[in-house]
Amino acid sequence: MGNILIKTEVPGPKSREIMKKKEAFVASPLESLAPFFIARGEGAVVEDVDGNRFLDFTGGWGCLVVGYSPKPIVEAVKKQVENYIHTDFTSIPYEPWPELAKMIAERAPGNFEKAVAFFNSGAEAVENAVKVARGYTKRRAVVVFDGAFHGRTLLTMTMTHRPMPYKYIFGSAPDVYRIPRPNVHRNKYTPKDFERLLLDTVAPDDVAAVVIEPIQGEGGFNVPQPGLLEEIRRVTEKYGILFVADEVQSGYGRTGKFFAVENWGVVPDLISLGKSIAAGFPLSAVVGNRKFFDALPKGSIGSTFGGNPVACVAGIEVIKMIEREKLLDRAVRLGKIIRERFEEF
């Protein structure tokens, strides 16, 4: 496609014309960051309808870890669409679902038998991880942290920290408890304070899950203090609580590991995934110890479009592409370069 190129004023005449339709018919809370409309994308470069090219730092809000429309994914998706586009896996099953589930389970941390459930959005994955935790423990309380973002459903919106714009006056779900995320640079707490913070907030025998983003995104790219994830693992095991890692944003190679928790050698009970899992197709997942899923009755989780065959085929190709092109190593290499340049300022 080429490099950055500005051919017209921004927004250009074609973008301005489309903007009129947006302003007339699109719900006003759905505001767009860019002042132009995309025509195509390649790698990290987007071209708008007026022929201007930009370097995209948003990646569809973290969904394009393999870039815009890579050829192997496009070809695999075309082939799948020609065969069939949709059937619900719980009505007529199809091979791409268990194949992708196998690939994710084989890469997830933990020396135990794993299972995978697919959904559509990251919020659905987090919410269903909580459902699995509640079903297994027969408890209801969920503990989350200051600065968290877990989604926009009623439950995950309640689990999310920032009131505006996400919560507004929409109400909240019950049985969600928030505690400070220990970080000596942002508050007075250290990882060793986690157990006390938990016990001061809710009876541990009532807690089904502690849910944490290993690296917070909305919370300011907040990397865990040394020992925090390890302490959460110790405390959750002590009280029979499930440790849920929300890796919707931090997973799929961004940290140089397939799962961010691998950087700290911690094995959660359940991991929620989304965003980059299918190169922009709506797909999310929960992966974890099979015994937790087996505790739920048949039909207690599911989704009409969750694990759509086209999305699953894209997901299979994403993992192949990450490994074939050694994108984990590339993330480490680029991270080192960027960090060194930042430290020069």
From TrEMBL:
GO molecular function annotation: identical protein binding; pyridoxal phosphate binding; transaminase activity
One Pfam match: Aminotran_3
Keyword Nucleotidyltransferase tagged: no
Keywords, alphabetical: Aminotransferase, Pyridoxal phosphate, Transferase
Presence of the UniProt keyword Transferase in the record: yes
Entry coiled-coil feature ranges: none
CDD domains for the chain: OAT_like
Names of required cofactors: pyridoxal 5'-phosphate
Protein family per UniProt: Belongs to the class-III pyridoxal-phosphate-dependent aminotransferase family.
Name of the protein this chain belongs to: Aspartate aminotransferase family protein
